[in-house]
């Protein structure tokens, strides 16, 4: 396994409260419910479809990063 030698600080996206803003419909986002994290798809203006999360009561969401470019 390769070790990281970089001292670069990793900057994450900002958490957004669902009471302030909702993600676009059909978007998979990282969610938080006060206890655990999960990946969920926001299906409509009311519901998150559970992809992985034991407690589906979402309080915050964050967009996922773009996927890495693969070497060809």
Q: Would you write up a description of this structure?
A:
A hairpin with a 5-residue loop joins strand 3 and strand 4. This protein is globular. About 10% of the residues are buried. The chain contains no helices and five strands. It has a five-stranded antiparallel sheet, with no helix packed on it. The two termini are about 20 Å apart. It is mostly beta strands and about 70 residues long.
Number of helices, counting only DSSP H or I runs of 4 residues or more? 0
Residue share in helix: under 10%
Strand order of the largest sheet: 1-5-2-3-4
Structural class: mainly beta
- For the record, give the distance between the C-alpha atoms at the N and C termini, rounded to a whole number: 22 Å
**How many DSSP-defined strands?**
5
The proportion of residues in beta strands is 25-35%
Gyration radius, rounded: 15 Å
Mean pLDDT level: 75
**Quaternary assembly:** single chain
**Main beta-sheet strand count, sense and barrel state:** 5 strands, antiparallel
Q: What is the overall silhouette?
A: globular
List segments where confidence is low: pLDDT < 50 over at least 5 consecutive residues. none
Instruction: Give the topology string: H per helix, E per strand.
Output: EEEEE
């Amino acid at each position: 396994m390769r070790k990281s030698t970089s001292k670069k600080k990793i900057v994450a996206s900002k958490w957004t409260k669902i009471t302030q803003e909702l993600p676009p419909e059909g978007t998979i986002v990282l969610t938080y419910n006060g206890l655990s994290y999960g990946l969920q798809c926001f299906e409509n203006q009311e519901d998150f479809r559970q992809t992985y999360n034991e407690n589906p009561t979402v309080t915050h969401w964050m967009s996922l990063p773009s996927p890495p470019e693969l070497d060809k």
